[in-house]
Amino acid sequence: MEYRVLEREGRFMTIEGGKNVQEKSAQDKPFGEASSGGGYTVADIEVLPEGERAELIDGEMFRMSSPTLTHQEMIVELSAQIYLYIKRNKGKCKIIPAPFAVYIKDDIHNYVEPDISVVCDREKLDEKGCHGAPDWVVEIVSPSSKQMDYVRKLSLYEEAGVREYWIVDAEQRMVTVYDFVHKKKAEQHTFSEKVKAGIYEDLFLDFKDWN
Question: Which of 86, 154, 184, 202 is the most exposed, fewest CB within 10 Å of its CB?
């Protein structure tokens, strides 16, 4: 998924390959000015026009573009595998695919919509979304979102208390697994492997359909 960052100075920037490229004045976009001197807040997210989606990291707002077909197909397939496992084992965790509001630090300056969220503490959930860190987050990376997924969100999810973070790269046919709880070194798996979920003893996700 492509991201564009909206800065307080009123300029849209497109993140491409780790470089910020000026696109156009925010005056031409319906976002307006940040509501506080500390950057954008959840209040700014909540007043976006219908159909506009954005994420917030430490007061910086990132507009989300429409996902690709492959991106959506992978969300459906992986969500189905996780959902069926939880249902079969009568698990307490809830799996929610995007779009789904995650107030990741339960503050006013951070808000994300992970591609897949698995939340085991149901007290974090209400009709607005998840208040606090999910236990497991999966992001489907695209060429234009690598800096976001591998750097910005990696740091955010670890700081916020996510137990496990997966980055799925369909182009490279790779899955990168971060086990924050056990502070393990990142593990990389190819789509030819069944990849084990760390938060469960016997859940392995199958990527064979993309080989």
Answer: 202
